[in-house]
Specification:
The chain is mostly helical. It folds into 3 domains: 95 residues, Arc Repressor Mutant, subunit A; 109 residues, no CATH class; 105 residues. Helices cover 62% and strands 6% of the residues. The chain is built from 16 helices and 5 strands. The strands form 2 sheets. The chain has a 3-stranded parallel β-sheet with strand order 3-4-5. It has a two-stranded antiparallel ribbon with strand order 1-2. Strand 1 and strand 2 form a beta hairpin. The chain is globular and about 70 Å long. It starts with a helix and ends in an 8-residue tail after the last helix.
Length: 350
């Protein structure tokens, strides 16, 4: 049983039941953990995080755990005694989600069985329960937002080709449930919402950060720049713009290596070669090329993106820079042998 998927489903149930914010939906997890573990006191936040991960397969950082404990204290689930939190079991039991967990577990078992059957009957692909759970979980993590948009009819599910065989299987299954099995698709949407809730808990830490990042430089990668230029759609571009805005407000400096910029333009020039080409094969195409073809871009449209890219990057305060001289700060670099010793590796390993 994939604990993470089950936990994400319960997060959605908590949201519907409690109708509060994303911190509130984690309160039943803490309360249930208190009952299961029989804590007399909570002193070590890191140990609490390890228990969260072991029981629910949710990796909750210390600052988020403190936020959850603070909220739990307001509800009387824990009380503060000097520097430790002392659980109040009678209050914690009011938030026990054992019954909800059983229902969600049955839904999870059902959908994994359906996935295995679908892959075998429709694609002649045999899959173990563990493989199906891993595939299901991985796809949901990568495409949670797209699934939610698809559920609302805003856009289609993300395009996945046969070349990515495993992803194609789960994509086909989710597409099938969207049309033919609304009960199963509703569970998939619940998991996607749960993943967004879990992600929001972690992201909020940066939003509340009151300092600045004036001495921090961020180096952006190829895929991010392509999305920022609008190559993978409006929603992806807007997400990138918001990301950059939040960091600029903290006075972080944004950089792009020259070789990364060259890679971006190289991908776009390769797209020009294939847009409108009768030999175009979506199975071999990059995400950028598939986007251009599916949205009827012309060679001129792609060329315009290349031409305007420098000014657009400049508008976002992204500076194109050369690779730093590797010998410039050699006094602070660690040699290979010392690195191996630190990693406890012998020559030839790793």
């Amino acid at each position: 049983m994939d604990k993470a998927v089950l936990s994400l489903a319960i997060l959605k149930v908590n949201l519907d039941h409690l109708q509060k914010d994303y911190i509130e939906v984690f309160i039943p997890f803490l309360a249930t953990l208190i009952i299961q573990k029989g804590y007399e006191r909570i002193i070590d936040i890191n140990q609490l995080g390890k228990d969260f991960e072991a029981e629910y397969d949710l990796l909750i950082p210390p600052y988020a755990l403190k936020a959850i404990l603070t909220r739990a204290r307001k509800k009387g689930i824990v009380k503060l005694d000097e520097d430790m939190f002392v659980p109040v079991p009678v209050k914690a039991r009011k938030y026990d989600f054992s019954k909800s967990s059983e229902i969600q577990e049955k839904r999870q078992v059902s959908i994994i069985e359906k996935l295995i059957t679908f892959c075998k009957e429709k694609h002649q692909e045999n899959m173990t329960t563990e493989e199906a759970e891993d595939l299901f979980h991985t796809f949901l993590k990568e495409h949670d937002i797209e699934i939610l948009f698809a559920a609302e009819g805003v856009e289609e599910l993300p395009k996945v080709t046969h070349i990515a065989r495993k992803k194609y299987l789960i994509y086909s299954f989710i597409k099938h449930t969207q049309v033919n099995d609304l009960f199963a698709f509703a569970f998939i949407v619940d998991i996607a919402i749960g993943h967004v809730l879990a992600s929001a808990l972690i992201y909020e830490r940066f939003v509340q950060y009151t300092g600045d990042l004036r001495n921090v430089g961020l180096y952006l990668d190829t895929r991010f720049i392509l999305r920022l230029l609008g190559v993978e759609g409006k929603e992806q571009k807007e997400a990138c713009v918001e990301f950059l805005k939040s960091y600029r407000e903290k006075k972080a400096k944004l950089f792009l290596f020259e070789h990364t910029y060259d890679e971006v333009t190289g991908i776009l020039r390769e797209c020009i070669r294939w847009v409108g080409n009768k030999d175009y094969d979506p199975r071999k195409a990059s995400p950028a090329l598939r986007f251009f073809v599916e949205n009827n871009f012309t060679k001129s449209d792609v060329e315009e993106i290349i031409v305007t890219a420098p000014e657009e990057l400049k508008a976002y305060n992204i500076e194109i820079t050369a690779i730093p001289d590797p010998n410039l700060y050699s006094a602070w670099q660690i040699d290979t042998q010392a690195c191996r010793r630190l990693c406890k590796l012998t020559p030839g390993e790793g």
